[in-house]
Amino acid sequence: MEELVIVGAGIAGLATAVALKKVGVRAVVLERSEGLRAAGAALTLFPNAWHALDALGISDKLTSIYTPFSKGYVTDVKTKAIQEVRYGASKGSGDEQRAVNRKVLLEVLAEELPPNTIRFSSKLTSIETVMEEGSSICILALEDGTIIKSKVVIGCDGANSKVARWLGLGSPVDSGRSAIRGLAVYPRGHGLNHEFQQFVDVSKRAGFVPLNDKEIYWFFLCKVPPKGADNGGDPNLLLREVVDNLAKDFPPLYLDVVGHSDPSTLTWAPLIFRHPWEVVLGNLTRANITVAGDAMHPMTPDLGQGGGSALEDAVVLGRLIGSSISKLGKLEAHEVGFALERYTRERRWRAATLITASFLSGCVSQNGSSWWMRFLRDVFYKFILGRAFSASRYDCGKLC
């Protein structure tokens, strides 16, 4: 019997466990893999994510090793036209953007948790609920035969979440695009400015951003699955496909970054998202069971808000569930139900807005180089993107 179970040890799951620990609730985290998974190499965290990390008490562990950036450039591969993009924060303002190694972020979160909080090789197979003494109890069955009872279950098990399906949410839909991501390593330093560089072409978009003086995160987005994808995303095939085919007409600077990749960091994945109206109208909580992170709101990466919104979820869950603790330090099941309902009300519209803005941003950024698409893209980067990034200055609040 457990007080609270979190399914999935990704960003949302670990951050939620840290938030709950800070308000006095011990959670058990079930992870199907044998260790922490860091698919995607790195991610960009905007001010909203740093507000959440401040609330979790770990932002200083990351800001000390990752350099902020405040501007970037978008290059049209066909016309060679370059457009500057400002992200609205200056260095030292406390309202900055940084790219962070995904594995390091997961490790920093995991270090905040008590020993044995994360139970690896624990694959969920089914969920049931029963009534005991007037309260709903969740029964989780694992692949190894273990049965766990819990007052509360939070599904942080990714876009193809079993918990989301149990709630009645549909499967995410394919955006029609896919992404190759990797981490370039320069042992002697790359010597580049800490700026976000993007390159757009017909149905293609690529870019890179330095994490620090020796590491650069890069990505390549396209509409056709790359060669090597059928082989489970073989890193060497993916690397050759980007350099020799997909990005062969891209600037030498970008190809040099890709050429310095650590093959173990390369991944390929289709870009999927949940329809925003399903988040607004769907059943996000039932019987003391809810979802967070990609399990609730998978979105395309075009605004860099997947990780940030997952961290927001964690802080909001911690704040609201913390208010359900009795004077004896126990979770009150009926109070938790009210807390989860408040959580979903608070998160629905923000998640739906981010899903929509990310999808539209991707469409504008990656749909060709005709004159009207160039005009639309110019308007987007000059006048609309700044407003879209205003959502990144959202503050999810503090933990009691």
Secondary structure layout plus pairing:
Blueprint: E1 2-7, H1 11-22, E2 27-30, E3 42-45, H2 47-56, H3 59-63, E4 68-69, E5 71-76, E6 82-86, E7 97-101, H4 102-111, E8 118-119, E9 124-132, E10 135-142, E11 147-155, H5 162-167, E12 173-185, E13 196-201, E14 204-210, E15 215-222, H6 235-246, H7 252-259, E16 267-273, H8 276-281, E17 285-286, E18 289-291, H9 306-322, H10 333-365, H11 371-389
Parallel strand pairs: 1-2, 1-11, 2-8, 5-13, 11-18
Antiparallel strand pairs: 3-7, 4-7, 5-6, 9-10, 10-11, 12-15, 12-16, 13-14, 14-15, 17-18
Helix pairs in contact: 1-4, 1-9, 2-9, 9-10, 10-11
How would you sum up this structure, described in words?
This protein is α/β, with parallel strands linked by helices. The chain has a single domain (2-173, 272-393), classed as FAD/NAD(P)-binding domain (3-Layer(bba) Sandwich). 34% of the residues lie in helices and 26% in strands. It is built from eleven helices and 18 strands. It has helices at 11-22, 47-56, 59-63, 102-111, 162-167, 235-246, 252-259, 276-281, 306-322, 333-365, 371-389, and strands at 2-7, 27-30, 42-45, 68-69, 71-76, 82-86, 97-101, 118-119, 124-132, 135-142, 147-155, 173-185, 196-201, 204-210, 215-222, 267-273, 285-286, 289-291. Strands 1, 2, 8, 9, 10, 11, 17 and 18 form an eight-stranded mixed sheet that branches. It has a seven-stranded mixed sheet with strand order 6-5-13-14-15-12-16, sandwiched between helices. A hairpin with a 5-residue loop joins strand 5 and strand 6 (82-86). The model has no long low-confidence stretch (mean pLDDT 88).
